[in-house]
Amino acid sequence: MDQQKQRTRLTRILPAIRQMKDFDWLLASPYETLVLLESHVGQLRSMVREAKRAGKTMYVHADLVHGLKNDDYGADFLCQDIKVDGLISTRKNMVLKAKKQGISGIQRLFLLDSMALETSYRQIELTRPDYIEVLPGVVPDLIAEVKERTGLPVIAGGLIRTAVDAETALQAGAAAVTTSEKAIWKHYIQNRGEY
């Protein structure tokens, strides 16, 4: 495992940031890896810089950065200028660009119906992301299926509202769970000691 991949290893719970007050709280937390869901392009540089100063790994959901176009130039900007540790996207060009730049590429897929799932499998064959984020993350059978069918680590996200939801996803084979529920973040710190 190269040094970059070691530095960006996943933990079981990946706090997903929607608000700046959560970002500040997480900088002081024991969580090593943070996921930035919604942000403005003007905030990115300082947020990633602060996270790195605090010893955190920062994944950015490229599709949810306001003011950024999801094309190759946007991906280059995030990888080369902002220097994120990983890109999360539904778009194959973003995932491929991340991998080409040597950072983690996370393919996000929505479990809408069987046809969408089959289309996602074909796309994953082309991109071969480092991780697959499955939404919603509260469908254990499909987490197991995606992991088995692709041979790639799965992150469960979306509608993870309780610690039981998180545990169910992890027991189904998810490598990690993304959640914006602060109660879950605190639960894992206080009760489990796993982060």
Characterise this structure.
There is one protein chain. With 195 residues, this protein is α/β, with parallel strands linked by helices. It has one domain (3-192): TIM Barrel (Alpha-Beta Barrel). Helices cover 47% and strands 21% of the residues. It is built from 9 helices and 10 strands. It has helices spanning 3-7, 20-27, 41-53, 72-82, 92-100, 114-127, 140-150, 163-171, 182-192, and strands spanning 13-17, 33-36, 39-40, 57-61, 65-66, 86-89, 104-110, 131-135, 154-156, 176-179. Strands 1-2-4-6-7-8-9-10 form an 8-stranded parallel barrel, surrounded by 8 helices. α8 (163-171) links the parallel β9 (154-156) and β10 (176-179). α5 (92-100) runs parallel beside α6 (114-127). It is globular and about 40 Å long. Residues 1-8 have low confidence and may be disordered.
CATH topology: TIM Barrel
Beta percentage is 15-25%
Structural class: alpha/beta
Number of strands: 10
CATH architecture: Alpha-Beta Barrel
Q: Describe the biggest sheet?
A: 8 strands, parallel, barrel
Averaged pLDDT, please?
92
CATH homologous superfamily assignment: Aldolase class I
Uncertain segments of ≥5 residues (pLDDT<50)? Answer: 1-8
Q: Identify the overall geometry.
A: globular
**CATH class descriptor:** Alpha Beta
Rg (C-alpha, Å): 16 Å
Q: In what order do the strands lie side by side in the largest sheet? A: 1-2-4-6-7-8-9-10
Number of discrete domains: 1
Q: Which H/E pattern describes the elements?
A: HEHEEHEEHEHEHEHEHEH
Helix coverage percent: 40-55%
- Helix count equals 9
GO molecular function: RNA binding; transcription antitermination factor activity, RNA binding
GO biological process, one term: glycerol metabolic process
Protein name: Glycerol uptake operon antiterminator regulatory protein
Keywords: Glycerol metabolism, RNA-binding, Transcription, Transcription regulation
